[in-house]
Amino acid sequence: MSYTVNFRVLAFVAALTLATFGILISARDSEAREARTRANAVKIAKEYLGTPYKYGGTNKRGMDCSGLVYRVFYHRMGMTNVPRTAADQWRWKGAIRRVSLGSTKPGDLVFSDFDRNGRVDHVGIAVRRDGRLQMINALRPGKKLGYLSIDKRYYVGSKRWLRR
User: Fold this and answer.
1) Taking the mean position of all CA atoms in its chain, how far away is CA 159?
2) Residue 139: pLDDT above 90?
3) Is 104 left (phi over 0), alpha (psi -120 to 50) or beta?
4) What are phi and psi of 56, to 5 degrees?
5) 3-class DSSP state of 10
6) DSSP 3-state percent helix, strand, coil across the chain (nearest 5)
7) pLDDT at residue 20 tops 80
8) What was the pLDDT predicted at 120?
9) Which of 28, 101, 117, 124 has the CB geometry, 3.0–4.6 Å to 137, for a possible disulfide?
10) In a 3-state reduction of DSSP, which class is residue 101?
């Protein structure tokens, strides 16, 4: 009888250990996929540096800030249901999660309120440049896609797209 009880306890402990190990491996795999997604987003976004600003544009002939995000994540990386505007990208609750500015990593989305009216009106893709966190973005007519420092006065939040 005691052998049966000991065997059941041992089997339970073994199952619990394997389950915990599986969860740890799954978490590491998820983090690795997210890191690859972010690195790929930065690589693709850099291909569009120098593209002229065009309101509503989503291609090399011209694009706006949310058009860059849409082009990178939807057209190039194949993520579905990517909203088209910065405000909708901020509100979207899909395969995405909010992260703090201190946790923002290259490839994350950085949202701003440049009009200072309480609404998101701008988005960029975070990059590390010259040791500083900046963003690739299309700012306004007459400008080309380029790098911009993240200004805390206009910063609203950051989001991380999740690759499943």
Assistant:
1) 5
2) no
3) beta
4) 80, -5
5) helix
6) 40, 25, 35
7) no
8) 96
9) 124
10) helix
- Structure confidence by residue, pLDDT tens digits, 61-73: 999 999 999 999 9
* Strand-pair partners of 155: 112
* Chain segment 35-80, per-residue pLDDT in tens: 898 999 999 999 999 999 999 999 999 999 999 999 999 888 888 8
Between CA 156 and CA 15 the distance in angstroms is: 45
- Counting every residue written for the chain, the total comes to 164
Structure tokens at 68: 């860059």
pTM of the model: 0.81
Superfamily of domain 2-161: endopeptidase domain like (from Nostoc punctiforme) (3.90.1720.10)
In a 3-state reduction of DSSP, which class is residue 122? strand
Task: Report the distance separating Cα 72 and Cα 74, nearest Å.
Answer: 6
List of residues 6+ apart from 147 with CB closer than 8 A: 49, 127, 129, 134, 135, 136
- What token pair was written down for 50? 């120098």
- For the residues of 68-100, what is the DSSP string, one character each? HHHIIIIIIT--SS--SSHHHHHH--SSEEEE-
